[in-house]
């Protein structure tokens, strides 16, 4: 079997069947002729040729049995939520990405679905929260955003399956190159493909990959068609272009992140560093056991000088851009409490870094001058 980098670079050794070209064309047609031939797509609300190619690639990377791309990560999340009915129950990682937490909380409240927030690293608490016939989904995020905690996927899968529930793992930050959640026992993997899979900050997309193409999965596909949330042809084509360089991008970004995390851990003005690749991190052992090839390109750190100093730090960087989002080629910094606003669970002195593919010396120098200016302000 070819390595992931080889698969991605050539889009699965793609060759256009009509022209022999090595780059897939954009097929923007809304409908196709129904002539009984294999490959007829029907109506564009069900998919397009670019989406099918992207789905095939991601399905292979994740060792899945079915893949569906959506027009946003939130749309993919909604598709999973659409399978729930009043009276069902969801257990959600308490420290997950705040926007997904808000989306899921509002949906459950409106639909009469019981939502329980739990630290999924605490298996005893997870076991106490699950109930046979009442818990339908356990929704994990690996690593959590923005504290980058690592839960035990195999253990969570056992807890979920014991009560007849499914385990959903948001692996956006981990990417399929560092983590294969389905292999570890998850039932479905979610990606905000806006982030690393695309990697260039120029489209929104989401994806789901399933371990089984069962009736529940068919409900999700039906929802995507009915809601018109399939990824459009042009965006799917751009996504494919981004996926070609996924292996190179995440390797460089992960290497940079580890160097930066180690440097920050030695700075007297830094009171804490959150990165699962640091050996002193409490989640290192679980990360090492489940990740392969790297620990990710996201990290957070806290300043000894407090919340005001953290907010000011963002305005002092010159290479890191003061902006939200993650997974693109450029490095970003943000004060998470300011971004999340009221109801945030994030420490008010925490800064989140999305580490890009720049020269690491420039990134370290930028952080050093910003830290020096903040300490001496």
Automatic annotation (TrEMBL):
Protein keywords: Pyridoxal phosphate
The UniProt entry, under Pfam families, shows: Cys_Met_Meta_PP
Record's GO cellular component, any one?
Answer: cytoplasm
Q: Which residues carry this modification: N6-(pyridoxal phosphate)lysine?
A: 195
> Which GO molecular function, any one, fits this protein according to its record?
cystathionine gamma-lyase activity
* Reported cofactor(s): pyridoxal 5'-phosphate
Name the Gene Ontology biological process terms.
cysteine biosynthetic process via cystathionine; transsulfuration
User: What's the superkingdom here?
Assistant: Bacteria
What family classification does the UniProt entry report for this protein?
Belongs to the trans-sulfuration enzymes family.
What is the official name of this protein in its record? Cystathionine gamma-synthase
Q: Which organism is it from?
A: Erwinia billingiae (strain Eb661)
């Amino acid at each position: 079997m070819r390595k992931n980098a080889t698969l991605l670079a050539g889009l699965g050794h793609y060759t256009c069947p009509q022209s022999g070209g090595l780059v897939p064309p954009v097929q923007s047609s809304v409908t196709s002729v129904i002539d009984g031939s294999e490959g007829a797509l029907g109506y564009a609300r069900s998919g397009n040729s670019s989406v099918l190619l992207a789905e095939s690639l991601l399905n292979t990377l994740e060792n899945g049995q079915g893949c569906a791309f959506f027009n946003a990560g939130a749309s993919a999340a909604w598709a999973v939520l659409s399978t729930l009915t009043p009276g069902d129950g969801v257990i959600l990682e308490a420290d997950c990405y705040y926007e997904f937490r808000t989306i899921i909380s509002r949906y459950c409240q409106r639909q009469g679905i019981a939502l329980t927030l739990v630290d999924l690293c605490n298996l005893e608490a997870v076991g106490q929260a699950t109930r046979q016939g009442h818990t339908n989904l356990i929704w994990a995020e690996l690593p959590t955003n923005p504290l980058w905690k690592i839960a035990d996927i195999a253990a969570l899968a056992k807890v979920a399956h014991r009560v007849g529930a499914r385990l959903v793992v948001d692996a956006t930050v981990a990417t399929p190159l560092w983590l294969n959640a389905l292999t570890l026992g998850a039932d479905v993997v979610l990606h905000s493909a806006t982030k690393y899979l695309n990697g260039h900050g120029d489209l929104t997309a989401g994806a789901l990959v399933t371990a089984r193409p069962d009736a529940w999965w068919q409900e999700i596909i039906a929802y995507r068609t009915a809601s018109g949330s399939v990824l459009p042809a042009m965006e799917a084509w751009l996504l494919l272009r981004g996926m070609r360089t996924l292996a190179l991008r995440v390797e460089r970004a992960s290497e940079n992140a580890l160097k930066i995390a180690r440097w920050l851990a030695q700075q007297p003005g830094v009171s804490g560093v959150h990165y699962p690749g640091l050996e002193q991190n409490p989640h290192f052992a679980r990360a090492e056991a489940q990740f392969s090839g790297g620990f990710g390109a996201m990290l957070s750190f806290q300043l000894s000088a407090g919340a005001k100093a953290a907010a000011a730090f963002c305005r002092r960087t010159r290479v890191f851009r003061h902006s939200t989002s993650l997974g693109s080629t450029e490095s970003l910094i943000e004060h998470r409490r300011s971004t999340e606003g009221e109801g945030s669970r994030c420490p008010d002195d925490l800064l989140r870094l999305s580490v890009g593919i720049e020269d690491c010396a420039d990134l370290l120098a930028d952080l050093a001058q910003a830290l020096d200016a903040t300490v001496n302000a």
